[in-house]
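Thread: Modeling a multi-component assembly for a lab meeting

Hi all, long-time lurker, first post. My supervisor asked me to bring a structural picture of a complex we are working on to next week's group meeting, and I have zero experience with this. I have the sequence lines for every component (668 residues in total). Could someone generate the structure of the whole assembly? Inputs are pasted exactly as I received them:
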Amino acid sequence: MSFSERAAKAIKKPNLIRATKSAVQSFYWNRLAAYAELGEPEVADLKQRARAAREQAIGNLDAYLEQFATMLRSRGAQIYFTKTGAEAAQKVVDITRATGGRRIVKSKSMATEELHLNDALEAAGLHVRETDLGEYIIQLAGDPPAHIVGPAIGKDRYEIAALFAKEEGQPVDHDPQVLLQFARRKLRQEFLTADVGITGCNFAVAETGTIFLVTNEGNANLVTSQPRIQIVVVGMEKLVPTFADVEPLLALLPRACTGQAISSYVGMISGPRLPEEQDGPEELHVVVVDNGRSAIRQTEFEEALLCIRCGSCLNVCPVYRQVGGAAYGDTYSGPIGTVLTPLLRGLDQWSELPHVACSLCGACHDACPMSIHLDDLLLKLRQKTDREHLVSTGERWVFKLWTWAWATPGRYRLAARIARWLQLPFSRDGWIGWAPPPVKGWTDYRDLPVVQAETFRDRWAKRRLERGGRNAG
Amino acid sequence: MPVDLVPGFVAAWERVGGTAHVVSGLPEARRAIHSIVTQAALDTAVAWDSPVLAALDLPALFRWYRTPGAPDGPESFKSACAQAGVGITTAALGTADTGSLLLPFGGTRPRSVLILPPVWIAVVPAQRLVAGRAELFAHMGALAKSGRPPTEMGLATGPSRTGDIEGILLQGIHGPGVAHAIIVEAVDVSSQNQV
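Re: Modeling a multi-component assembly
Sure thing. I ran the full set together rather than chain by chain. Output:
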């Protein structure tokens, strides 16, 4: 299914679109309020320092990954570098099996969504439970995340109650407090009986070998304290050079996500538990995931690796607001998904996204705490699509013709004349309501104003004559 | 004595749904805890093994009160945490800008005390409050860079919360739904530098 088809399906669900809009609008206003509280100079300083740290890391990734691994190994953790998503998922399965694990609890991680890790674990006969409330809801529904920060934002209390009722085998009231207590009770059992805990990683500090985990629910604290084994899945771009570098990043992330000054829980893990400790994992395994990231480095798209997954660009995107996350068809949605999905999964399969899921308004760049030029990256993807001949022959000819016609004033005049003649059968009262392809793509959704009988150029020439050539030149 | 930091911490902590109590000394801190647990009818507790908490004589306030020092092994302490009504910790540091408490977990300071019981009480000497991020990161960075960093450090800011049901802010999804910070203005000097 294409983006256009998925989007067409999504906009027929008014509840989904209403819920999505209301959620992202509150994320948006909360971010602005949180930034305003800090004041513009401080926000600018944080953004500048955060971006510099991330650029430094991405520019020297191999060295920092090595340092990160060495630090963690020195404290007894085991590190694995994996190339593809399938390899990373298999590694997690292998670790789980080798340690005799059967029951797994997970805290929220976009990287594991990207690897389709749950499918791999379930295929291996393992029990895996998402524990972030939003992730739990979409796991029960079998959906991909609708938003980077709020994976279940398209679902209302009635849908959630129905999913819980199905899970429980009896009705569950739709009162939010009841739903909360239901999830707490069910997931608490999972935490206490799991032998493996899987987390993602928000920031990985090379200097100290520290894994940062940021949550509001505290589920990561349970995942890292109760099970015997902990597996951390970390995208290789999550590195930062020094511990101090996390300061501006941690100040920006929750503010950009939800407008909070800080998330309720921040975990900083530096190794497996020591013999004298009462809880925490006996074994700590860290799986570093490439899955297409290396191929983005040192290309015109490298900036996309600076992303810290705050979801700000989704919240401001006029396309995302209209169609929601499911329309994007993969793990990441909104502007960052439009850039990342083709880069990680292959432009040949995903060239439609940068072409149709963006109006180039640039709101995403303004919203991004890392100041990633998402709109430029989208344009570059369009150019690459063209260079690699991934667009249809028809579309390429239309744009070739277009380019030719606009290249000189004479051709432009000629084109306008031809257009006036071509539009005759379709014009009604100054508007075109229907036209054959390639104009049909436009007129299916809105009317097109006709090319006027008297153009600006005609009027300008006439004026010049009337004024006796006074303004000539 | 950083008195001006106390109101900042209290405001930030309460803004995220926590309850703050500012008390003048350890006996007052004990009274505050007594009144919290009496009102909420809580009679079981797990706690960190810490000099500040030891000075409060808390076991007498509960039907049972467990610290990790007890002889019967980790699993049974974890299961005590899963059953207890209250988890009591101290904090190495608190920030006035965001109302965050730094918890360096370790042998006498298990993670489960913070996260398993439905009610969390943190007893924090006022001397440990700092202004904000800069001081916090200096402190945490020093710990992370030390030869033997805590296997896990945590920052906790108020109760556990979620907005995943229609964006409605709800407390207590996984961790404690109730978070009390007891800021103690005068604490015996000998225990100041120990968590």
